[in-house]
Design goal:
The protein has one domain: Cupredoxins -  blue copper proteins (Immunoglobulin-like), CATH 2.60.40. Helix content is 15%, strand content 44%. It contains 6 helices and 23 strands. Strand 19 and strand 20 form a beta hairpin. The termini are far apart.
Amino acid sequence: MIGAILITSGVLPEERAQHFRSLTDVSIATGMKVIQEPTLGDNTFIYAINDVAQRGIDIAQGDQRVRQILDDAKAKQATVTIAAVQPAVMIDRQSGESLYSSAGQVVITSNWQTIGGTAYPEPQSFAAVTDRNLESHQQIWHVLVDVDNGQVTKIDQQANRIISDTINPEIVRTEVNMFMPNAIALDAGSTVRWTNPSNLPHNVVGIFNRTTVQDAVNSTGLIIDSSTNSTNNTNDGQSSTSSSGVTAIDSGFIQQGQSWQYNFNEAGVFNYLCTIHAEEGMRGTLIIAAAPTSP
C-alpha cells in the first residue's frame, strides 16, 4: 500500500526521472572566488569556480607532494596559478538542493622565464632586454581530489613546455599559454603591442591602477564593476575607468597573426591575464613609471 502511494504521488526517483529536463530543472552555480591575489612579493594567484571546488584547494595544499611542487616553484621565483576548476555545482530549481560530483580537480601552473640562462623574476625595461634571448618555461599539474573524503587521489604532470624567442622593443608575444616577456617596466607615455604568432586566440584583460609603483595594489586582472565605469574604445578593445581611478582594460580576442596595442599615459601597475587560458597561468605585469622630467 505504501508503494502504491509513493508511485501515485510521484516521489520515487524513477518517477521524477521521467519528467526531469536538465536545461529547465537545474542551473549551474557560478561565481569565481578569488582566494589569493598576486603581489610583487608573492606572485601567486589562487581562485576557485565555486565554493565546493574551493574545498579542493585546501585538500591539495595539505598534501605533501603538492607542498613540494609549490616549494620548488618558489625556489625558481616562478609565477604560480592554482585554479580549482572542478566539480561544477548544479542547483535543483525545485528543491534548491546543490548537486555535484565528489571528483574535484585543481590545476597548478608554474611559469618562469630566463634571459641568457639567468632568472627573470622582476620587470626590466625594454631597453635592457631588447634583442636578448628569452626562454619561457611552464609546468602544469592536474591534482585530482575527492572533495567529500578530503583526499588527493592522483597527481598528473604534463610535459614541460619551453618556448624561446628574441625580445623585440615594445612588443609582448602571446605564445601558447604564455606572455613573453611576462613582466616589463616602461615609462608613462609608452605604447605596448601584444602580437599573436600562436595558433590559439588570446586576449589581454586586466586592471590598471594609476598610482606610484611603491604604493600600487596589485589586482587579479579581473574586470571591475561596470556599473561605476565610463567606457572608451581602444584599438578594437575597451577600457573602463571607475570612480576610484582604476581602469579595466579588455583587448577582445586577438586571433592568430593579429595584434593589439595600448598606450599607457600615466604611472601605475597593469596586471593582466588571458581569460581563455587563465587556469594555465597565462598572466603578465607592466610597471609604468612616471615619465622622466626634463632638467
